[in-house]
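Attaching the record inline, Q. Sequence:
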Amino acid sequence: MKKMKLAILSILRIVIFAICSPALAEELDPVSPAEDAGELDSDVGGIANIPITPSPDPSKLKTFDAQQKASDGKFFDGIRNKMVNYFDQFDNGEITEQELADLIQNNISPNLATEEQQMAFVISEQKSDSTVMMIQSTYPPVEYGLGKLGLNSKEIKLFSDHPVWAAKTKNIANVASAEAEKRFSRYTLWQGNGDAFRHSFWNALMTKNINRDWAYQVGYAHENLNPGQKTIDLDIKMDIENNYRGRVDGTDWKSYGDSVVSDKIADSISNGKKVRIRSYTSGYAAPEDIVAGVKTKSEGKFIATSSGGRMR
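Structure, as predicted:
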């Protein structure tokens, strides 16, 4: 009789949780496999570590137009500013996902259609004032979200080649960031459990609703790295590791709805299945370790995630 009562209580808990757990605002519509189809490096094929791509040689630019574009940072800045502006318009609800894809297709893709244009774009990035300012800024910055998309030539080139997927990726990034903020306390959103959730969920949704190889490409490009490229930066290593684990989740749970995947990834965070590099401390914390008013400490290495800071 006692065992029967416990079983009934367990079932009731599951039913209550299912009813009370808030779902995502809406399920994302997966893109058609035919949309934006193109050649992508594979995440599944066990690609070897890829070295840093050598800087393009300006002397190899043959056309006067490309040489002019590569002569300063204006070419990069112009395209970058357009991309950021389009993403801001989407964030502000001024354009739809389809309209975002159309703007990229019509106003950015034609400027990066040839190999010469792409080479000039990368050279122009190296001469851009915005790039210099990013390098000289205080590091590491405290970020509570994924950060802006489309800030470097690798990401912009990828989005230019696949505008439909780019627009979907931006939508997914917004969903992942918002979901992380709902589920985790703010102090965990930088290098902590909430940060691990955000990157894992972002890559899981890209894998599920676009495809895994795209998620692999974007995950590295967002960190301004080539696919598979190694880095010594521990913060970026954490993001890359959780991106990978999210892609595995998106593969394993592809048949589930997005809200169920969110629940499962949140549980995986609580169960130590992802990684973080920052934790809560009740002891002394230097000013730079006080995150969102909470004392934290940098672990200096990967540690397993936990239920710390989880709100739902």
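The longest strand covers residues 294-304. The beta strands are 275-280, 290-291, 294-304.

More tomorrow.
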